UniProtKB/TrEMBL annotation:
Residues 6-152 form the N-acetyltransferase domain. Gene3D superfamilies: 3.40.630.30, Cysteine proteinases (3.90.70.10). The lineage of its organism: Bacteria, Pseudomonadati, Pseudomonadota, Gammaproteobacteria, Pseudomonadales. This is GNAT family N-acetyltransferase/peptidase C39 family protein. InterPro entries: Acyl_CoA_acyltransferase, Bact_Acetyltransf, DUF3335, GNAT_dom. Keywords: Acyltransferase, Transferase. It comes from Marinobacter qingdaonensis.
Length: 374
């Protein structure tokens, strides 16, 4: 007679006794009470996924989903000793991720004791990265490590251009990196190199911005795309030299104005469409449907609590999300290329992100179109 196979399903109210038994078997501290289990079972937004061997419940994963965010959280996971070695923990985590994605969640988070090497190894193997620590988190005053993993991924389709990913190689060249991605989506011969990135920066830089090297503005990026044979349009919500409020020195402000005047002079010799209106989400979506790729200036406050202006490439839009290629990868924080490709941002959050500055916020975008004839 064959051994029973591990099965997964959503918990039901009749599992209450078994859940309490398993909790008492696996944990001596920080146990979930019977009353709490009953409340979780009755809460339609949360999920308890259980693993069974035959008629016996041998594992569970409790996942919480807050109504106001797109985050899901694995609150607790337990596996009976008799089921260990069968991949029950991994299967429970993956089942929880699938349930969270079906509920429209973007990121899964969890906490784990800092001395639980086996669990930490599992989570790292499944693609989770540590992003913080909770001190004195457990009843015995032990610390918890905080892990997270992006779980919602966009599948490129024929509906929009397929945009290759290119990470910026300097802290100041997000604009050139975002533009390279847009141009490479429309022309397979477009160079995707650090040399091209730096050439674009030299052409499009505003010279000064904040501290250190200057960033790139929409006028310069549109010109750089045009000079490489692409159709281009720039959508800017205000006229005049941009980013003047990021520098205090009058001489630097004058340089910004001169660079701006130069860009306008050069744009006047082209057929670049210069619009002093914000580009709407509907406009971005229409551009993608037409085979054009928007490059958007955002405030990174919603992403990393920094107010630095930052360029990203919009790759797709659906009813819920705007999908971005973000060229900045924070390697020190454990980020990888996978974290920044087709990054899903809620439409309402993206609407806030696409405004830089608090007083008369700037909205800027460059739409790159196919190569021009001739």
């Amino acid at each position: 007679m064959s051994e029973p196979q591990l099965q997964l399903r959503q918990a039901v109210s009749s599992d209450l006794d078994s859940l309490v038994r398993l909790e008492n078997l696996c944990f001596s501290d920080d146990r979930i009470s019977r009353r709490s289990f009953r409340r979780f079972l009755d809460m339609p937004r949360d999920r308890i996924i259980v693993a069974t061997l035959g008629d016996e419940l041998v594992g569970y994963c409790l996942m919480l989903m807050h109504a106001a965010t797109r985050l899901a959280r694995i609150y607790s996971i337990a596996v009976s000793p008799k089921a260990r070695g069968q991949g029950a923990g991994e299967k429970l985590v993956r089942a929880a991720e699938r349930a969270a994605v079906e509920a429209g969640r973007i990121v899964m988070r969890l906490e784990v004791r800092e001395d639980n090497g086996a669990a930490i190894g599992l989570y790292r193997r499944l693609g989770y990265r540590q992003f913080g620590t909770y001190r004195d988190y457990y009843e015995d005053h032990g610390d918890a490590l905080r892990f997270e993993r992006r779980i919602l991924f966009y599948e490129p389709s024929r509906q929009f251009p397929v945009v290759p990913y290119y990470p910026q190689t300097t802290e100041f060249s997000c604009g050139p990196a975002a533009l390279i991605m847009a141009m490479a989506a429309l022309d397979e011969q477009q160079p995707v190199t650090t040399l091209e990135e730096l050439k674009l920066w030299r052409e499009a830089t505003t010279i000064f911005m904040l501290a250190g090297h200057g960033g790139c503005g929409p006028h310069g990026l549109a010109l750089a795309a045009w000079n490489r044979g692409f159709h281009a349009s720039a959508w800017i919500s205000k006229e005049g030299a941009l980013f003047k409020d990021t520098v205090r020195n009058d001489d630097k402000k004058r340089v910004l104005e001169l660079v701006h005047e130069g860009f306008l002079h050069d744009i006047g010799k082209t057929s670049i469409e210069l619009r002093h209106d914000p580009l709407t989400l509907a406009g971005m979506e229409q551009a993608l449907h037409d085979g054009r790729v928007p490059v958007i200036l955002i405030s990174t406050w919603q992403l990393n609590r920094s107010r630095v202006p930052h360029w990203v490439t919009v790759c797709a839009i659906d009813d819920q999300f705007v999908y971005l290629h973000d060229p900045e990868i924070d390697v020190d924080a454990g980020e990888s290329v996978a974290d920044k490709q087709y990054l899903p941002i809620e439409r309402r959050i993206f609407d806030r992100m696409s405004r830089y500055g608090s007083v008369q916020p700037l909205q800027a975008a460059v739409i790159v179109g196919p190569k021009r004839d001739g």
